[in-house]
Write the C-alpha cells for this entry.
Amino acid sequence: MAWLPLTPSCGRMVNCFAMDLDIASSSAIPGLVIRTAQDNEARACRMLLPEMFTAFQAPDVLVATVADPARNGTSRIVGGAGVGTTLGPKRSLPTLVHVVPSWRRRGVGRNLIEAVAARSCGRADTICPPRPVPAASQAALFLMACGFDQWDRIIHFEVDGLPFYADVLRVRRRLEQHGRIPPEMRILRLRDADPDAVTDLVCRCIETSHQHVRARFNSRADDVYDLENSVVLMMRDVVAGVLIYTWNGGIPMIEVRAVDPALRGGWANAVMLEEATRNAKEAGALRFRFFASDKLNDTMSLARRANAEQMKVELQFGRGLAG
Ligand SMILES: CC(C)(COP(=O)(O)OP(=O)(O)OC[C@H]1O[C@@H](n2cnc3c(N)ncnc32)[C@H](O)[C@@H]1OP(=O)(O)O)[C@@H](O)C(=O)NCCC(=O)NCCS
C-alpha cells in the first residue's frame, strides 16, 4: 500500500558537482549557458526549486542563464536544476528542473536535463524526479519528451471509513478463525516503539534514507507522523512491520506501510491495517486515504471491495544514464 511519498534515497551520498567548473552552452538558444550555480545563484534557485531544499538535503544546483539585454555584461537566470546528493531506487539521483514561465517551451528545460544527465554519468545509473508527477500534466509530458520512462503508476484513493473498516475487520477475523495469527505477535502504538528500530525496518523495506525517516519523525510540519494511531508490529521483541498515518484536513492517510519480507503475503499486513484503522476511527476519522502502485494487487482489490473513490493518479518517471 502506501509508502511512496518518502523521498527515494537509500543513504549513499554522492557529490556530483562540487568540482565541476565546466560551462556548457547551447547553440539552439542564443546566449543560453548552463553551469554550476554560484552561491548567490543557488540562493535564487532555491526559490525555483523549494522542494529540493530540505532539512536533510542541500542539492547540487545547475543554473540556466541568458545575457540580459538591459544590462550589458550581465546575465539573468531563466531556470535551474536541483540534483539530490543521495542515491535512491535504481541508483537514481533525484532531479528537479524549473524554468521561469516566460522562458518555457524554448528548450531550456531539455538542456538542463541533458546537462544533469551528462554530469551524473558514472555517479548514478538513473535520474528521477523526487516525487511522482500528476498523470497527463505538463511535467509528465516534459519528462516523456526528455527520454524518461514511466517506472510506476500510483493511484490515490479516498474511502468511507465504515465499509473500509468493516472489510479489514472481516479479513482479520477470518485469519483468526483459521489460526493464522501467531500468538507471539504484539501490536504497539508508534509512540511506544523504538524509533531507531522502526527506521531500520522502513529503510530495509523501502528505498529511503535513515535521515529522511528520522527527519519525518522529528518534523514539526503539519503532516507529521501520527504517533498515537500509527502501529508497529512486534515479533518476539523485534520490529516486524509498521503502518504510519499522517493527517490532512481531518482525514488520516497511510503514508508508510512496511512489512518484514519474511511475513509478507500473509496475516501481518491485515492485522496492522485493522488495528491502525480502528485507532484512527476511534480518533474520529470518518474517511481514509491511501495510495499504492497499481502493481499492488492486494491494495487494488481492497480499494475495489471498499468502493474507494479514485482521487488522482501520479506517475513516477526515471531515465537511465549511459556510460
Ligand atoms: C516542465 C518544465 C521544466 C519544462 O521546461 P521548458 O523549458 O518549457 O521545456 P522544453 O522547452 O525544454 O520542452 C521540452 C519538451 O517537453 C515537452 N513539453 C514541455 N512543456 C510542455 C507543456 N507545457 N505541454 C506539453 N509538452 C511540453 C515538449 O515535448 C517539449 O518539446 P517541444 O517544445 O519541442 O514540443 C517547465 O514547464 C517548468 O518549470 N514547470 C514547473 C516545474 C516542473 O513541473 N518541473 C518538471 C519536473 S522535473
Remarks:
- The pocket of coenzyme A is lined by residues 96-99, 104-110, 129, 133, 138-139, 141-142, 145 (CB under 6 Å).
- The chain has eight helices and 16 strands.
